[in-house]
Design brief:
252 residues; mainly alpha; 14 helices; elongated
Length: 252
């Protein structure tokens, strides 16, 4: 098997030297992963750039990542941004997400929240859950755009539906407060419980409280105690722990 990979690399390099973009890309991956040869990030970047210069979107994204991380070369955020922009313009969701992050944080360029949101939204529309969450945060806070709670909730729910725990919790908060939609305690509890199942301490506390008082569902002492105990056991969130302990003393 190792011999086959060595032969494959030889064939790919022969084609790569003749300008075959796909072969250049494959050489890049083989050097990056150490397939058929020792891992060599410098050679990987060399071949990825050759493919990238011929317009290969995935190679361009890989170049962006390698320049960002300083793999095979010194870290260079400006070159990283350049390659991400080229890949993002071709529709690459990963590049769009990374580009959004660079504009948000001012890496390789001046901070530009409007451009950050633009690229996050491009990636979000392709189903990137973290980008969807970031869009929710930015619309909620009015970063790069006017605050829009309805759009914030829309994007939080998109991410929540993909299992993004913090987005699930934020959906619960917004439905509980009537932000971006009419107040709906049943939906609030639904999303709190989804986040609670993934270990979010404050969501566990809120589930426990709602089952204690019968908000969003019939009062259920067993479920209330279960969620309050889980929140009380989580030491990293002092607020949720203390509030859960307080309700356990009051109700149980």
């Amino acid at each position: 098997m190792a011999e086959d990979k060595e032969n494959n690399l030889t064939w790919y390099e022969d084609a790569a030297r003749q300008g075959d973009a796909e072969a250049q890309f494959r050489c890049g991956w083989m050097y990056y992963k150490g397939e058929g040869t020792a891992a060599d990030k410098e050679q990987a970047l060399y071949w990825f750039e050759k493919a990238a210069e011929q317009g290969d979107a995935e190679a361009r994204c890989n170049c962006g990542l390698m320049y960002y991380k300083g793999e095979g070369t010194a870290a260079d955020k400006e070159k990283s941004l350049c390659w991400f922009e080229k890949a993002a313009g071709q529709g690459g969701a990963v590049a769009q997400f990374n580009l959004g992050g660079m504009y948000y944080n001012g890496e390789g360029t001046a901070t530009d929240k409007a451009k950050a949101l633009y690229w996050f939204e491009k990636a979000a529309k392709q189903g990137n859950a973290e980008a969807q969450f970031n869009c929710g945060v930015m619309y909620a806070k009015g970063e790069g755009t006017a605050a829009d709670k309805k759009k914030a909730l829309y994007w939080y729910e998109k991410a929540a539906e993909q299992g993004y725990a913090i987005a699930q919790f934020n959906c619960g908060v917004m439905y509980a407060k009537g932000e971006g939609a009419a107040e709906d305690r049943e939906k609030a509890l639904y999303w709190y419980e989804k986040a609670a199942e993934q270990g979010i301490a404050e969501a566990q506390y809120k589930c426990g409280r709602m089952y204690c008082t019968g908000e969003g569902a019939a009062a259920d002492r067993a479920k209330a105690k279960l969620w309050l105990q889980k929140a009380a056991e989580q030491s990293e969130n002092e607020y949720a722990r203390k509030e859960a302990e307080k309700l356990l003393r009051e109700y149980f």
